[in-house]
Request: fold
Amino acid sequence: MKNHPISQVKVPVHAPPHRPKPRPYRILLVDDDADMRELNADTLTRAGYHVDTAKDGDSGWHALKARHYDALGT
Reply:
């Protein structure tokens, strides 16, 4: 085998493109049981979601008309 010198080509190293962090999903949680509503809201918030709550359907309907939600939990 012939002895060939290895030439190194210097290629500039670029950082990967900056990708904005995806925004957390916004969830509206509607439940008439305050304890369940709080438990579920806390769990979803710890998982990284933005959570709004409503105590009944009427309050939930007003929240839906006032703001955009990615999901609705009942």
Remarks:
- Residues 24 and 49 are 5 Å apart (CA to CA).
